[in-house]
């Protein structure tokens, strides 16, 4: 009896250990039986055998266009036509997966989809990348082009060539990519395809006979687009070598809370398999490939990726610093020359970002780290403020980029933040040994007004300039020229695009266009003008630091950098805003804007009046005068010794846009 009980307990213990082992293996993606292990590759590769796609049957291409010219709609029709998704009237913005993209109707993040298409008896693998159209997300476009051999240049047949169309064309042209011109929305009654073809011929010397005409919304001409991609965009055979050791270019990444960093790569040389160990050229760290796959557009695991193919892998990468976009991965123990990546993003707009409550600082830091893994064009520097506490100084490519980043923080991570007024970087040339020791270089870049050097050690100041391209109907030219001149613009070029439209180029200070220039441009042109700009470096300029004083005490957090000709106007506007925002005290508060100690603008916040005569029901007038005199003396002493405490809410209202 005792023996049978002991035997039963041993059997139960073994069964419990086996169940525990099975559960643990399943959590880590392992298999406990040989049968399951052997079946795994068959299940992953079923219906999508990548061995049947040699390099010459692969096409890597992206869609580039101006905002709202139909990139996402064309991507939807291509996915439907190739069978990647079912034909459905609800298929709108399939590749726009972010909530902010669907709400705003714009593409923010470049998305990839791999589809197959049979043409003339051969099956082709088409790797499609849908890119953003706004100038603020041009870095997404440049990253996508690094993994492509050609592009579809999409132009609206109704609106014609726009400013971002010009910028995207030259971006693809300088990358030596094949360009397939396509006119969209030919079904609209106001469409004028022949006039737009003439614009393409005038600007880009594109033969009108090579231009395809489609309607992405109605599905007209989609098959011709796909066959033209196969015929006119080259395969990646020239830059890929299947027999060489592994080299893969990381051109995008995002964060998954279960898998960590998901790396989107182009396999340039060799073959990448699940279970391989790869090494990063940038960090030197090695990782085991846990999962490998392609986007169809959903994530689909496959056993291996060959040269010329675009796919993703996960390797338990948990830090954003270990997934640097533009990095090269190679086989562990087989070093290689790093691939030529692409230019680093240069932030154009800087803003402070602080949590609404300092107790939320760790959670906000984690959220920013995850978003910057998804968007590597954002720069981060730690910053602190006496009014707002610990925070960060973030650099963005533009104002829309900053708004989208803030909106994604709120929607995807539930973070409530305070974003200060955006500013641009400046360069200051200084002299003196003490100044050089403090700043570390002779010409430091200043991104925060608090860092502005003492005027006595400044030799020269410079501000960033951009070359702006505006395309507008000729009837609005006068108003647009006035707007550019008011923003200290210098005209460089002006020519006719066709009979009714003009393209004009202005050299403009970045500080003058970063906040509200685009809104004013749309206002004076009734929404018809389009604007694009590119950085052309720093130029010397007369810049000063505008200080804000409350009763003679400088408030560093409210300081700003302005051009000397605008100091009085900007100072007056800030003083008026402060006088309407700050709470009243028992004494008068003088709000002043000063440059180098000279007051340029001033407003007064009137004191809260206490009725000291309320207890006087009559009597001699001298009694009333005595009380009023005593009150005035008390207010005078209070003004001398009283502290002006600016509440956090007032700072938020003043600093945020």
Please provide a written account of the structure.
Its EC number is 3.6.5.n1. It is a peripheral membrane protein. Helix content is 30%, strand content 30%. By secondary structure, the chain is an alpha+beta fold. The strands form six sheets. It has an eight-stranded antiparallel sheet. Strands 2-3-1-4-5-6 form a six-stranded mixed sheet, with helices on both faces. Strand 12 and strand 13 form a beta hairpin. The N terminus is likely disordered.
Key terms:
657 residues, Alpha-Beta Plaits, six-stranded mixed beta sheet, 31 strands, alpha+beta, Rossmann fold, eight-stranded antiparallel beta sheet, Elongation Factor Tu (Ef-tu), domain 3, 5 domains
Short description:
The chain has 657 residues and is of the alpha+beta class.
């Amino acid at each position: 009896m005792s023996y049978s009980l002991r035997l039963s307990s041993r059997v139960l213990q073994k069964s419990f250990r086996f169940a525990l082992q099975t559960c643990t293996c399943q959590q880590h993606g392992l298999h406990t039986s040989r049968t399951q292990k052997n079946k795994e590759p068959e299940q992953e590769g079923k219906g999508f055998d990548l061995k049947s796609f040699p390099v010459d049957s692969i096409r890597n291409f992206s869609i580039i266009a101006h905002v709202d010219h139909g990139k996402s709609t064309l991507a939807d029709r291509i996915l439907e036509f190739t069978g990647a998704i079912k034909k459905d009237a609800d298929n709108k913005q399939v590749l726009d997966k972010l909530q902010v993209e669907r709400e705003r109707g714009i593409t923010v993040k470049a998305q990839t989809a791999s589809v197959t298409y049979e043409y003339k008896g051969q099956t082709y693998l088409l790797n499609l990348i849908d890119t953003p159209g706004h100038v603020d997300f041009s870095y997404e476009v440049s990253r996508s082009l690094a993994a492509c051999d050609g592009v579809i240049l999409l132009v609206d047949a109704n609106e014609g060539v726009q400013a971002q169309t010009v910028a995207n064309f030259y971006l693809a042209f300088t990358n030596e990519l094949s360009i397939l011109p396509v006119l969209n929305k030919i079904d609209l009654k106001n469409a004028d395809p022949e006039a737009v073809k003439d614009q393409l011929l005038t600007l880009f010397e594109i033969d009108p006979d090579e231009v395809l005409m489609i309607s992405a919304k109605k599905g007209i001409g989609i098959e011709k687009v796909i066959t033209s991609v196969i015929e006119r965009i080259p395969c990646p055979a020239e830059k890929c070598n299947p027999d060489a050791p592994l080299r893969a270019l990381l051109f995008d990444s995002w964060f998954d809370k279960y898998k960590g960093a998901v790396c989107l790569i182009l396999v340039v040389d060799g073959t990448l398999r699940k279970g391989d160990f790869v090494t990063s050229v940038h960090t030197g760290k090695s990782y085991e490939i846990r999962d490998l796959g392609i986007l169809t557009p959903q994530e689909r695991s496959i056993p291996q990726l060959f040269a010329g193919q675009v796919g993703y892998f996960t390797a338990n990468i948990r830090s954003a610093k270990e997934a640097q976009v533009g990095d090269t991965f190679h086989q562990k123990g087989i070093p290689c020359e790093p691939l030529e990546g692409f230019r680093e993003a240069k932030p154009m707009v800087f803003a402070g970002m602080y949590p609404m409550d300092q107790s939320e600082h760790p959670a906000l830091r984690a959220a920013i780290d995850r978003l910057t893994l998804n968007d590597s064009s954002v720069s981060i520097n730690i910053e602190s403020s006496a009014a707002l506490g610990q925070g960060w100084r973030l650099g963005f490519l533009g104002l829309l980029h900053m708004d989208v980043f803030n909106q994604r923080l709120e929607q995807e991570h539930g973070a409530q933040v305070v974003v200060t007024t955006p500013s641009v970087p400046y360069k200051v040339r200084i002299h003196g040994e003490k100044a050089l020791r403090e700043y570390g270089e002779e010409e430091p870049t200043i991104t925060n007004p608090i860092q502005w050097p003492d005027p006595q050690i400044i030799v020269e100041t410079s501000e960033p300039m951009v070359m702006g391209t505006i395309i507008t109907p000729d009837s609005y030219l006068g108003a647009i020229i006035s707007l550019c001149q008011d923003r200290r613009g210098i005209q460089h070029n002006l020519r006719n695009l066709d009979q009714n439209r003009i393209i004009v180029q202005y050299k403009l200070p970045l500080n003058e266009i970063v906040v509200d220039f685009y809104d004013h441009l749309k206002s004076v042109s009734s929404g018809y003008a389009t604007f694009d700009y590119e950085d052309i470096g720093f130029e010397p300029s007369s810049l000063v630091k505008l200080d804000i004083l409350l009763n003679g005490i400088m408030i560093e957090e409210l300081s700003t950098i302005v051009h000397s000709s605008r100091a009085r106007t900007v100072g007056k506007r800030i003083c008026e805003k402060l006088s309407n925002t700050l709470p009243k005290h028992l004494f008068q508060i003088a709000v002043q804007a000063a440059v180098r100690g000279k007051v340029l603008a001033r407003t007064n916040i009137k004191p809260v009046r206490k009725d000291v005569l309320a207890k006087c029901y009559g009597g001699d007038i001298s009694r009333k005068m005595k009380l009023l005199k005593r009150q005035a003396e008390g207010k005078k002493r209070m003004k001398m010794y009283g502290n002006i405490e600016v509440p956090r809410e007032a700072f938020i209202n003043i600093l945020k846009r």
